[in-house]
Amino acid sequence: MSKDDFFEEQLPCSKIKTNIVRSYFNGWSKIMLKWSKTIGYLDLFAGPGKYEDGTDSTPLIIIKSAIADRELSASLVTIFNDKDLNHIEKLKSEVSSLPGIDSLKHEPLIDSTKIGDDIINIMKGIQMIPSLIFIDPWGYKGLSLDLIASVIKDWGCDCIFFFNYNRINAAITNPAMVRNVDSIFGKQVAEDLRKQVPKLNPQKREKLILKTFMNELKSIKGQFSIKYKFYQEDGLKTSHFLI
Predict the structure, then answer these.
(1) What are the backbone dihedrals phi and psi of residue 162, each rounded to the nearest 5 degrees, phi first?
(2) pLDDT tens digits, residue range 48-63?
(3) Are the C-beta atoms of 70 and 92 separated by less than 8 Å?
């Protein structure tokens, strides 16, 4: 499936993912608003806002939640990013046409930037308001420990991200993917995984990769983590995790 095909219609796994993010945001925002007058929601790989079948994706769901809630509408700062300019133009159009969009105190910021070292360095250099950050790249390029660390370093900042186990698992022993894998696990840890995983059966391999990654999250202040496991369509093999 190509990236463009992905947005033709919402698949069951995407619906579940969206529901998890929405439920987490609803609970998190109620708690944060007891302590802060302003909170944020950042989606770094936002997409076009709607599937071609008309179903809202996460950005529109979050904005609609803010429009419908008087306290959120006065407090929520939203930033949506996608490097695909076509997606950004579609998202801008969808957002601007939402009923009640003018009731938001803070106009959604919608931008097109490639997520990499420049963005990470900017995030490291600023103190963030309490924010929920959603990182859902197509595949896994763009996801890194440094990126996660840069957005959860400040108080009240939580991160939900897509961990594409199926592709990361294959990439660990692929010489062409050394740099990408290093960015996810850290160079030394990735080297250790490359030595260990070829000797393991699929079940032990998955257990090791997940345990290793969760340990690395703890080293960057991600000590309180929950992982949701998704299976491939045949229901037999792991596809990905939402963490």
Answers:
(1) -90, 120
(2) 989 888 899 999 999 9
(3) no
**Sign of the alpha-carbon torsion through 118, 122, 123, 125:** positive
pLDDT at site 2: 42
Of 189, 186, 184, the C-alpha closest to 243 is: 184
| Whole-structure pTM value | 0.91
Of 87, 112, 83, 115, give the one whose Cα is nearest residue 180: 115
Contacts of 113 (CB under 8 A, 6+ apart): 81, 83, 119
Q: Please, what is the end-to-end C-alpha distance for the chain in angstroms?
A: 23
Q: Token pair for residue 113?
A: 């930037």
User: Please, is 80 exposed, middle or buried when counting C-beta atoms within 10 Å of its C-beta (0-12, 13-18, 19+)?
Assistant: buried
- Determine whether 104 is exposed, middle or buried from the number of CB atoms within 10 Å of its CB (0-12, 13-18, 19+): buried
Q: Count H helices and E strands in the chain, helices first.
A: 11, 7
d(CA 170, CA 156): 34
Asked if residues 185 and 212 have their Cβ atoms less than 8 Å apart, the reply is yes
